[in-house]
Automatic annotation (TrEMBL), chain A:
GO molecular function per UniProt: lipid-linked peptidoglycan transporter activity
Superkingdom of origin organism: Bacteria
Entry keywords, A to Z: Cell shape, Membrane, Transmembrane, Transmembrane helix
Name of this chain's protein: Rod shape determining protein RodA
Entry coiled-coil feature ranges: none
Pfam families cross-referenced by the UniProt entry: FTSW_RODA_SPOVE
GO biological process per UniProt: cell division; regulation of cell shape
GO (cellular component) term, any one: cell division site
Species whose genome carries this gene: Winogradskyella epiphytica
From TrEMBL, chain B:
Name by which UniProt lists this protein: Penicillin-binding protein 2
Sequence ranges assigned to domain Penicillin-binding protein transpeptidase in this UniProt record: 250-577
One term of GO molecular function: serine-type D-Ala-D-Ala carboxypeptidase activity
Cell compartments where the protein resides: Cell membrane; Membrane
Topological category with respect to the lipid bilayer: Single-pass membrane protein
Keyword Protease: yes
UniProt-listed NCBIfam families: pbp2_mrdA
Keyword Transmembrane helix recorded: yes
Amino acid sequence: MLRENQRHFKFDWITIILFLLLVAFGYLNILSASHEGEITSYFDTSQSYGKHLIFISLTLILIVLTLSLEAKFYEQFASIIYIVAMLSLVGLFIFGKEVNGARAWYGIGSMTIQPAEFAKFATALAVARYISDLQTNMQTIKDQLRVAAIILIPALLILLQNDAGSTLVYLAFFFVFYREGLQQVYLIIAISLIILAVLSLKFGIIITSIATALILVIAYFFRRKKRGLIPRFVVIFLASVLISFGIKFFYTNILKVHQQNRISLWLRLEKDPAKLEKMKKEEAYNLLQSEQAISSGGFSGKGFLQGTRTTGKFVPEQHTDYIFSTVGEEWGFIGTSSVVILFVLLILRVLYLAEDQKSQFSRVYGYGVASILFIHFTINIGMVMGLIPTIGIPLPFFSYGGSGLWGFTILLFIFVKLDSNKINEW
Amino acid sequence: MRKLLLITTVILVGLIFIARLFYLQVYDNSAYNIFEDNAIRKVYNYPKRGYVYDRNGKLLVANQPSYDVMVIPREVAPLDSLDIEEFCALLKITREEYDSKLRKATNYSPRLPSPFVPQLSKSDYAVLQEKMRKFEGFYIQKRSLRSYQTSIGANVLGDIGEVNRSIISKQPYYKMGDLIGKQGVELSYEEQLRGVKGIKFIQKDRFNKNIGPYKDGKFDTLPQPGKDIKITIDAELQKYGELLMKNKRGGIVAIDPRSGEILALVSAPSYNPNLLVGRDRSKNFTRLFRDSIAKPLFDRGLQAQYPPGSPFKVINALIGLQEGVVNVDDQVTCRLGYYYGSRKLTGCHHHVSPIAMVNGIAQSCNAYFVNIYRRIIDKYDDAGVGQNKWADHAKSFGLGDFLGYDLNIGRPGRIPDGNYYDRAYGDNRWGSTYIVSNAIGQGEVETTPIQLANMTAAIANRGYFYTPHIIKEIEDDTIPSKYTTPKYTTIDKKHFEPVVQGMFDVYTKGTAKYLQVPGIDICGKTGTAENFVKIDNVRTQLTDHSIFVAFAPKDNPTIALAIFVENGYWGSRFAGRMASLMIEKYIRGHITRTDLEQWIFTHSLENEYEKPQSGEPFKINGQSSLQVIENYAIDNSK
């Protein structure tokens, strides 16, 4: 008994407290963003805040369940959990319920469940399992392709359900792969691709190509070993031109109009004021309202339940993807910077613990958790403030919704469990 | 190393976010502006604008309700073209106007209200009000417009008009579509007259529906009504002055020397203040503004800066006495002019000679005053010192700088000092003989009629004046103390008596002896000022301006005035007659010298004013004949 108790106290309480703070603060903001008129009962299930309180209660049960399973269970059953999750994604094509154009939900009575939220931890487990296998070497193309397949399957399934935002989350695993030995060159290619994409869209293919050529020429003169460099640089240059064209093509022909508009607004591509105004009205309404709500909060905010825009429901989807704007309006800079700091601390804490793990499985999984949280945090808050184009994904632990909350909770607490077990991992 | 990528990225993103938040919430938004908050509807309640009364309590300016259609462009719901047509028909505008007005409002601000169609008529309002709910984003704002109870004094009363964007950016109290004083007392006493508008903050939801008062009305305010004011103008005198000035151009400024109160401020030609009310304001204003010949918006009482001519001689007499360079009995010989050696510096007309001060004033002898002026300047070895001394004395009469009255237009006039001539001629390369024109109010000296009237008031008071002002009373408030504190001239009181006597003699035996009003002791001084215009780049002389200053009664004066009639020829011809009539009207209340009145009414200067525009050669002064109006009947219906 005594040993059992001691083991419980090995849970990383810092992580748990950060988690609780975020959930509690999230609830307050959901309450503010979703209440209409007087609040009669906090458990009023006809209201979003009432439902969310129930979700939170169920989360506590979920935590206990997650922690009470043996740590080994997650490693051993990783593949099975992954397969179940993928099947649940496939099942959506048959049994799924369409909401807002995305076929991403199962309807159970009045409740809906979004399997994509659970696919994240399943994928993280599978990735961890695969990489931690002794046979695996991330430096080889074969293993790189296999591990890529693990994340591409859920990513594609989700994309097919018209939920482009959630697809992007799987990019998070790049951090995991890199940590586990993916070659440096991938990082360089990834960064170059991002820069190339932005430049091509913003300044056009010609200017981008000229810039690339210039950089290569300069690089050539700075390199000591010049032998064989010219053909390599020519190939790089041609590839970059090709990619530029590809990006332009992708932007104009493959992206949907609303996605194009979001990118156009973000990069300020549209110069015609009339079209721009129209585009803003159609695409940037949420963003505009959310930015205004945030900046109207000022330094200390208007106070809990006092936000004029929040009360007036000016920001659509405020209790889900745009919940951060409520924080901005009602809690001001103090509130928003606190949330940012809480998230950064949580992610850094998970990273710190991950590096501390003795088993590679736990470490990789922990890295996956941190990366997924990070990408959600970056995209959601970045979007709400207009730093990146509009991509609709929730803010972990904060946004309204049962599936999201549960998915993130399980994701985090599996790691808490793995971490608590490291003492037995000799 | 590989561990560091995610850690640094996380920290970096956190820092970028906090920086961005700081920019959005703290740096860029140091003050949350509830007026820009589109979640809060602002409902304004405009108070009554204060009424304006004349000094005797006669109501001059009241209010009338007006209804503006306002628009908040962002909230305009898309309407089908049939609805827009209906709306346009109700507002009596075309579809093109609708589009352009909406565009203009959007350009100003999509979030803030702009006036869409200002100042609907009452009947249009009644019809529109029923259907207003159909047109989201538009609403009707009630305001009060001015209603002038009189047709006189437009230059004094001024008018109100819509604020422009530069005013709004400087004074955030005003919102688009608000009315603000633009001229006259409406401008000078805007803050007292306007009151403070009341405001209700109402929380809206995003469907633009009201969901209740914001924070239970904690920030709501009630309107505070504007204060009524009483101005110093005597409406009867003002009206009479305007009547006298019919068919002439010029200004009359009458001041009560005991208080500095402006009794009449006539500028001719003028206009009916009701022209600048309501929807036609901008059209009418443009028309008045563009009239570059008659210049009805040019206040000739305040802005007409000209050489004062002979009335300025009395100042030289006073300075001479104060400086001790002349005795009252010192005689000067006049040989039809002033001779410097064999050179005639200035001419003069026939009168007895030699002549002393009192008679010098009465006969307006040029030679006498050139003599005195030279003595003042030459009292010191350096002419610059003498000229400075002279300028200081003259300026103590409120000349040469803005007087500080409470109307916002005016001119400083000019009293040249030593530096002025040092700049013109070079240091010490000039002497008193260069500048003798100043002795007789020509040359570089320039004044406005109100400065002359004030100067006359200072003489009437024997040495002090109150800053002229237009405000008499403000409801529940006092008028600024600068209008109740006397300002003393640099001339001792004892020196005024001979000068006053001279001015009295102007009426009894001098240049205005045919203008006496039996029973009223008037002191005055005639003036005739040469003037020139450029016609096709040729400097051309026009008929002289007729100028007159006067005060009455001689002892304990109650009115001091300056009259200036453009191209009226010699001083007593037009301005002098008008002065006698104004004084009699004010002191006696009715006119006994109806012959003078009749003469003024039946003589016009319109043909004089046409001369420079006619493009044909013309004669001036005595060579031309005066235009007579046949069958003149006084129109008292106005």
